[in-house]
Amino acid sequence: MSSHPNNTDQPDRAQIKDDGRDARLSFRRFAEHKMKREFKEAAIKKCEVHLKNFGQCAQDNGLLVVFKCRDLNKKINECMVEHNSPEKFEQYLKDHGEELDKRTLKSKN
After folding, report:
1. I want to staple 47 with a disulfide (CB 3.0 to 4.6 A). Which of 26, 79, 90, 95 is the partner?
2. What is the tens place of the pLDDT at every residue in 51-91?
């Protein structure tokens, strides 16, 4: 009996590793990731009033923040869901498709 592992699963592992590497190194994915960050930052700016109100409430109430600021936290979550949803991001990508293509081409050069 041989102590070497069976080599039949090696191509599968290599393929999985290559697929993962391709996904990580894809210029388009990199450009999409950067656009996602910008999209999220814009959503945070749109919800800034709610964030400031919650921050002030948290400072004023200390450990009781969980109970006393629940409504403000709910407003933040609702605002972020409205402005940072996957559907909104897909629409953002469609609306900014040319910019995504430019970034993808720029990354390749």
Report:
1. 79
2. 999 999 999 999 999 999 999 999 999 999 999 999 999 99
